[in-house]
Write a structure and sequence with these properties.
Oligomer: heterotrimer
Low-confidence stretches of chain B: none
Distance between the termini of chain A: 9 Å
Chains: A mainly alpha, B mainly alpha, C alpha+beta
Order of helices and strands of chain B: HHHHHHHHHHHHH
Mean pLDDT of chain B: 79
Radius of gyration of chain A: 22 Å
Strand content of chain B: under 5%
Largest interface: A-B, 53 and 58 residues
Number of strands of chain A: 0
Largest sheet of chain B: none
Low-confidence stretches of chain A: 1-13
Order of helices and strands of chain A: HHHHHHHHHHHH
Number of helices of chain B: 13
Number of strands of chain B: 0
Largest sheet of chain A: none
Helix content of chain B: over 70%
């Protein structure tokens, strides 16, 4: 039955997906933030023999240069966190602004913005990221920038629709007629309406950003060696899958669990925040 | 409706123009050019010889002139020739298109077949364990990079199942369906992984939304059987956003399949464009991206028209 | 001596390294997986002609024009269809090909007597006119031949009669025969071919195979040339090279039986260990890895700073970590290349790591602790990034802060090309060269564009003398002295040769590996025993 207030504990039991997601995301954040405390070795040091299987000293074994896989996976969480925050933040800033302006101003501005968004969507995203990486030079920074640019149109679309809906409301038109400032209108009327879809999209884009970085590493762009990113470890470890599977399996598992967790949280947020779904009594 | 379609078709022009400018500028901004790639690090060529090559390839004119020449040729239907192999770009695309189309269509079909039931299950059993399981299964495909999925599939099948797709090169399914099926099975599975997740998610939330509608509750209250409720009211409405999302996925399939194509050695459109970037083969990249762009816009238009047909409440001005 | 450890336990085989170090000459190292020596000996009877075969190519040829294409993978594409006046056999000896014999009436003239009755794939007869036509294009200073530099001492080519041709050089030029054999801008095309044909995708040569179809990134299909002058070769009726850049696909193909041949990395070899039907052979190849130093950027203008880099390099560690033991230290002329190279014992003088001395040299040269180094690398070759990682770590041990910059191939080419030279150190490799001169002239002679500021008058002198001396013994002495000088001066940090490792189904016989990783010779002689 549709609820009044439910205690969080009960909600957790009723929504195991959300609970699982939160646990996974929490673990990811914990690892990323506490990396220097958790990792026994410097992730770029080559202290041991190469391709050692997991042992007491090297919990997840060593890679082909003798580096401790566990330490690299832990520090890799930092890189993934960085990638997610920066690229999604950039996408939100760029795309969100575009969507706001577009929805608020309408007319020519909206039409122009619409074309820009269409162009970005129609351009194959992998190709666009590679081209931008090529132009700006390789590296993590460029990868984040490229991913951010490619994700911006999604945020533009997510922001534009609710902005449009709000702006067309009579009370908003009335406020503008009376001379209320743009910022005031945005803050009081628009922002609350776009908050929910933006939050959901942010969570989901965070997860795909991590995957995009992995794909970039596969293609040789992305994080510079010897920096430990899960994507590079996964991509570089493929050739040892039959011989020393731990080199690639553990970073792969890390990516999978983190992305899964983010997706579960994103879906749960959508369930909770989307007014239409709330009606369904979820 | 027809006015809407016409307006969308007219909007095609500025969009394509924008794509053409973007791809031209980006490619020229990338450091290095085709002559440098041709020479590699080992050959030594004097400045005069380089000039000859630049002139032969049409790269000696100022950039705006090169752009206008290319644009003019496009408008005449001429996509140019590859700077590396001198083949017409249109012919290259025509050769690659069947492979990409086959992968795209099969991956989309497979993902639909798997994801929709999962999404429905996840929506119906809202809070149960089976919902969680369906939800997680659906998401697994999106949780790993597609190159990973492809590698694992290849490894598992060749190592444990001792199975390897026969045949030297890709054969059309029209010519040798069985051989072709073997060749595309693993790539299609790898591609559909991410799609399953997206479609499942859309289906689930669409179903949830619809199930919460008043008329559904009324039908339930009237005691109509659950299955009847679903079939008649929910599915049709839930199909709408799912159809919409397929339109966006075209972009992923056409361009993003590049990774799967690389791993399995299938020369599709995505890899053609990627390789063109590495070789600095401007006409191939420009022509390829433009072509993909046109396809994308047209498919989305079709999807939006289908959207309107499915939902009588939608009316396009 | 082959190691009997169980596979899949993660420790790569090291036995091979000992084997290779012991092999002083260029002999084949017998199979290390599956069936031992029997397959290598090919004692199973007379060759049986016929059959179709699918082989894997690990890189895409991209384009097949033998004159304008410089990349190695392109040569691996057209080498089966085109020929030149001479050729290399599997032991890198120069053998007659389109020329039956030759003589030098004087030191600057080579007269080639061409084979009679040879036909191009389009049926036209091969004559001296075709040779002249081809080399007029190659020698044209404004022309598109990318390897013209290999023929820079050739003044002109004359037709003496229908089946005799004369090369006139400006000075004695012993590298000429090798320059012809290596098929770099030296393959003979029919007269008028550049104008009438699209040589990027159309092939009209004299070789054992005709091109049926080439689809970039997919496959290269060849069919036996029934009129080949080397009859009864080739034995196979049809060969398709399936282009599989991913090793996973190649290993899967060999395992599953859909591929008869594949080039393998050390990991690939490990994975196929225990496959009874697959024979793996491995030998050092003339693929010499080196770090090229930017000698016009401070502090690398000072030879002491460069020597420090070389002394900091632990080549054994590199062989272990990057090549899984499958490499032999070498430089500046690769291990196994004729008798021109320095042995491991001789190289020990320069190659023994000495971090303390390296630090001292850096101090002398005024290089501060923590000096940043721009280490440029491209993943075009899968070993380059690994080289960078290990080297950066080794440089850290002598107090240098190397930052790896991994860029895509096209960008890399731009950064390292003259006059840009935007790097401190770049990872690179010398692939097959026709002559020892090819490994040292370009890049170390101060007049060449790739010298990047390196200028040593004695080196220049040795280079010029060595390439114009005909007597083998004298040449050898000159190159010996040259190499020692270069190692002292350290404009590069030379590393090692890796191996050419190939996997074949056991029923493929007659194939011989080439240290150049060329396959034409081997494929020509291959036959299927089934």
């Amino acid at each position: 039955m549709p609820d009044g207030a439910r205690s969080p504990g009960r909600r957790g039991r009723r929504r195991p997906a959300a609970a699982l997601g939160l646990v996974l995301v929490g673990a990811f954040l914990g690892l990323a933030l506490a990396a220097p405390l958790v990792a026994p070795f410097d992730p770029t040091a080559q202290p041991a023999k190469r391709l050692l299987p997991p042992s007491a000293r090297h919990l997840l074994g060593t890679d082909d240069f003798g580096r401790d896989v566990f330490s690299r996976v832990v520090y890799g969480a930092r890189v993934s966190l960085q990638v997610g925050l920066v690229s999604v933040g950039l996408a939100l800033a760029l795309g969100g602004t575009l969507g706001l302006v577009s929805g608020y101003c309408l007319g020519v501005v909206d039409a122009l913005a619409g074309r820009v968004i269409d162009v970005m969507f129609a351009f194959p995203s992998v190709i666009l990221i590679i081209a931008i990486s090529g132009v700006l030079g390789a590296g993590l920074g460029t990868a984040m920038l490229a991913i951010g640019i490619v994700y911006a149109p999604i945020f533009a679309r997510v922001v534009r629709a609710p902005t449009l809906a709000v702006v067309q409301q009579p009370y908003v038109e009335g406020a503008r007629a009376v001379g209320a400032g743009v910022v005031r209108v945005l803050a009081r009327h628009v922002l609350p309406n776009i908050a929910a879809p933006v939050i959901v999209q942010t969570t989901l884009s965070f997860s795909t950003a991590i995957l995009s970085e992995a794909t970039l590493s596969f293609l040789g762009l992305g994080t510079q060696p010897p920096s430990p990113s899960w994507g590079t470890m996964l991509s570089a470890g493929r050739r040892f899958m039959e011989l020393a599977p731990w080199v690639a399996v553990y970073p792969g598992l890390a990516i999978a669990l983190t992305v899964l967790g983010l997706n579960l949280v994103g879906d749960a947020l959508r369930d909770a925040l989307d007014p239409r779904l709330r009606q369904a009594g979820v | 409706m027809s006015r809407y379609v016409l307006r969308r078709l007219l909007l095609l022009a500025p969009t394509l123009l924008g794509i053409s400018v973007l791809v031209f500028v980006l490619m020229r901004l990338i450091p290095g050019d085709v002559v440098q790639v041709m020479l590699g690090t080992e050959a030594q060529l004097g400045p005069e010889q380089r000039q000859t090559l630049y002139r032969l390839l049409g790269l000696d004119a100022p950039l705006p002139v090169q752009y206008l020449r290319w644009l003019g040729a496009i408008l005449r239907g001429d996509l140019g020739v590859s700077l590396r192999t001198a083949e017409p770009v249109a012919a290259i695309i025509a050769g690659r298109l069947p492979i990409t189309l086959e992968l795209a269509v099969l991956a989309a079909a497979l993902s639909w077949a798997v994801a929709v039931p999962l999404g429905v299950l996840a929506a119906l059993r809202r809070r149960g364990l089976s919902a969680l399981v369906a939800h997680v299964i659906g998401l697994v495909g999106l949780s790993v990079p597609s190159f990973w999925l492809a590698t694992m599939l290849l490894l598992v099948t060749s190592l444990y199942l001792r199975w390897q797709p026969a045949g030297a090169e890709w054969v059309s399914p029209l010519r040798a369906p069985l051989t072709n099926a073997q060749q595309v099975l693993l790539p299609v599975l790898s591609l559909s992984g991410a799609l399953v997740a997206v479609v499942m998610r859309m289906t689930r939330s669409a179903m949830l939304e619809v199930l919460g509608q008043d008329y559904i509750r009324t039908a339930r209250a009237k005691g109509v059987a659950e299955r009847g409720v679903l079939a008649r009211h929910a599915s049709k409405n839930a199909a709408i956003p799912v159809v919409t999302v397929m339109g966006v996925q075209v972009g992923y399939l056409l361009g993003g399949a590049v990774v799967v194509e690389v791993i399995f050695g299938l020369p599709g459109l995505g890899w053609m464009i990627l390789n063109g970037i590495y070789q600095r083969d401007y006409p191939v990249v420009q022509g390829g991206v433009l072509f993909v762009g046109v396809l994308f816009v047209l498919v989305n238009l079709l999807v939006d028209v289908a959207y309107a047909c499915l939902d009588p409440r939608i009316r396009y001005a | 001596m082959a190691d009997a450890r169980v596979r899949g336990q993660g420790r790569p085989r090291l036995g091979r390294r000992e084997l290779l170090k012991g092999a002083a000459a260029l002999g084949a190292v017998p199979a290390l997986a599956g069936i031992p020596a029997r397959a290598a000996a090919q004692a199973a009877g007379a060759p049986r002609p016929g059959g179709t075969s699918v082989w894997a190519a690990e890189t895409d040829p991209v384009a097949l024009n033998p004159i304008t294409n410089s990349n190695f993978s392109s040569t691996q594409g057209f080498e089966h269809c085109y020929e030149s006046l001479t050729a290399f056999d599997a032991k890198l000896q120069i053998v007659p090909a389109l020329a039956e014999r030759w003589e030098t009436p004087n030191p600057t003239t080579y007269v080639f007597h061409l084979r009679r009755g040879v036909r191009f794939h389009d049926g036209s007869e091969f004559t001296a006119e075709d040779v002249k036509y081809t080399f007029d294009i190659v020698l044209d200073p404004k022309g598109p031949a990318v390897w013209r530099g290999n023929f820079d001492q050739v003044d002109r080519v004359d037709v003496v009669d229908r089946h005799t041709v004369r090369f006139v050089t400006r000075a004695p030029f012993p590298p000429l025969l090798g320059a012809l054999a290596i098929l770099r801008s030296s393959a003979v095309v029919p007269k008028g071919a550049m104008e009438k044909l699209k040589l990027e995708t159309q092939v009209v040569g004299t070789g054992p195979y005709r091109l049926v179809e080439y689809v970039p990134k997919s496959h290269l299909k060849l069919r036996k040339n029934p009129d080949y002058w080397g009859r009864p070769l080739p034995y196979l009726d049809e060969v398709t090279f399936r282009i599989l850049e991913e090793e996973d696909a190649r290993v899967a193909g060999l395992r599953g039986g859909s591929l008869d041949y594949a080039f393998l990395t050390p990991e690939g070899v490990q994975r196929l260990r225990g496959e009874r039907r697959i024979v793996v052979t491995s030998r050092p190849r003339t693929y010499l890895y080196a770090f090229v130093i930017n000698r016009q950027r401070k502090p690398w203008t000072d030879p002491r700073a460069r020597q420090a880099l070389s002394l900091a390099t632990d080549r054994q560690e590199i062989v272990e970590k990057v090549f899984s033991g499958g490499a032999a230290v070498a430089g500046p002329i690769p291990f196994g290349f004729g008798d021109w190279y320095l042995s491991a014992e001789e190289l020990a003088r320069w190659y023994k790591p000495d971090p303390a001395r390296a630090r001292a040299l850096l101090r002398e040269a005024g290089v501060p602790e923590g000096h940043p180094i721009d280490l440029l690398v491209t993943p075009f070759n899968q070993n380059f990034p690994g080289l960078a990682v290990v080297f950066a770590d080794q440089l850290k041990r002598i107090g240098l802060n190397a930052k790896i910059r991994q860029v895509e191939q096209g960008v890399f080419l731009k950064e390292v090309a003259p006059p840009t030279f935007n790097y401190d150190i770049q990872a690179n490799a010398y692939t097959a060269r026709h002559d020892p001169d090819g490994y040292v002239y370009n890049g170390f002679h101060s007049q060449t564009r790739n010298a990047a500021g390196y200028a040593n008058p004695r080196v220049d002198e040795l280079l010029t003398r060595a390439r114009t001396t005909i007597d083998h013994g004298q040449r050898k002495a000159l190159y010996r002295e040259l190499q020692q000088l270069l190692l002292d001066d350290a404009p590069n940090v030379w590393l090692c040769n890796d191996n050419v490792t190939e996997g074949l189904q056991s029923y493929v016989r007659g194939y011989e590996q080439s240290p150049f990783t060329y396959r034409a010779w081997g494929l020509k002689h291959a036959w299927l025993d089934r």
